[in-house]
Design a protein that fits this description.
Blueprint lengths: L2 E8 L2 E2 L1 E5 L9 E6 L33 H4 E5 H9 L5 E5 L7 H11 L4 E6 L15 E4 L10 H4 L2 H8 L4 E7 L4 H12 L6 E5 L4 H18 L2 E2 L3 H6 L6
Helix pairs in contact: 2-3
Protein name: 7-carboxy-7-deazaguanine synthase
Subunit structure: Homodimer.
GO molecular function, one term: magnesium ion binding
């Protein structure tokens, strides 16, 4: 029996839902989201802390609330996950988290079960390499390498060999969370170091409410225009607020 560890909308209910993609190159596209539980980083501004900031976790988070692991995660057989995905009759799947690439053997088995009719997107922090078994299933990589303001040490948030491999992968888009104009300096340095084409760089304002996003967009959009980088909003925040299952 192959199983996946998923986040929950409420205790016992896996966070598998149908919505519009809210960020990145696929913004606005109807998709089925499968949110996995667990992460290898600890971003202090993370908007899904219930996927990893469990009671006893040593890392900081600005919300300062730790979550009960049993209430906020559930383990399901991949057949149950496949049935939940199929009910929406939508050909686009987004595996998100947390860090979904920590569970690649089960994801590969799930994709084998679902068959080739689905377009598979991955939302990842870019520190975990694709495995040989899972890589053929992936059509799009929405990578979000973390910058210094995330609160993670450089050695933790950046794996040089992994990021270099992704930089040469035509499926990869690089979305950076931006809280201050100075963050663009770090993005530019990463772009140069790893030869990431400007057209594959996307900047997104950090924020979990519309007012904050609009305030940061006021200076971030012109910055993107000047640099030749793409800009993305957070559509789901404007539509639904900072809520689970949206």
């Amino acid at each position: 029996m192959t199983r996946l560890r998923l986040a929950t909308v409420r205790p016992g209910e896996p966070e598998i839902f149908h919505s519009l993609q809210g960020e990145g190159i696929s913004l606005g596209r109807p998709s089925v989201f499968v949110r996995l539980s667990g992460c290898n980083l600890a971003c202090h501004w993370c908007d899904t802390p219930y996927t990893w900031f469990f009671e006893g976790h040593a890392g900081p988070h600005r919300g300062d609330r730790q979550y009960d692991r049993r209430a906020n995660s559930v383990t399901l057989d991949i057949a149950e996950v496949a049935a939940a995905v199929r009910q929406y009759e939508c050909p686009h799947i987004v595996f998100t988290g947390g860090e979904p690439l920590l569970q690649q053997p089960a994801l590969a088995a799930l994709c084998d079960l679902l068959g080739p009719a689905y377009h598979i997107e991955i939302e990842s922090n870019g520190t975990v390499a694709l495995t040989a078994d899972f890589a053929p299933h992936v059509h799009q990589l929405n990578l979000s390498p973390k910058l210094g303001h995330s609160g993670n040490s450089e050695s933790t948030r950046r794996k040089e060999d992994v990021l270099a491999a992704y930089a040469s992968d035509h499926r990869a888009w690089f979305k950076f969370v931006i809280a201050d104009p100075a963050d663009a300096v770090e993005v530019a340095a990463l772009s140069e170091r790893f030869a990431i084409p400007a057209e594959r760089i996307i900047l997104m304002p950090e924020g979990t409410d519309s007012a904050t996003l609009r305030s940061r967009t006021a200076w971030l959009a012109p910055l993107c225009l000047d640099r030749g980088w793409r800009f993305t909003d957070r559509l789901h925040i404007h539509l639904y607020g900072d809520t689970r299952g949206t």
